[in-house]
Amino acid sequence: MSGKKKSYIRFEKVHGLSGDFWVIIxxxxxxxxxxxxxxxxxxxxxxxxxxxxxxxxxxxxxxxxFLKEAKR
Length: 72
Description:
about 70 residues, alpha+beta, 4-stranded antiparallel sheet, 1 helix, 4 strands, about 20% helix
């Protein structure tokens, strides 16, 4: 088995009125699973899950890695 796992999500950048954010989309269904946006109170990007979205630990890891790399 190869060392790289299959990704089930993708990040799509959206240009909003109050700044850019990323929508997290399920690669197979196209469903929106959540989004990442700037959270001024903490001065960093944070993740907001869509209601009733189901997440595996691999997907959580991928979102966490994305947050670590996100720049304003």
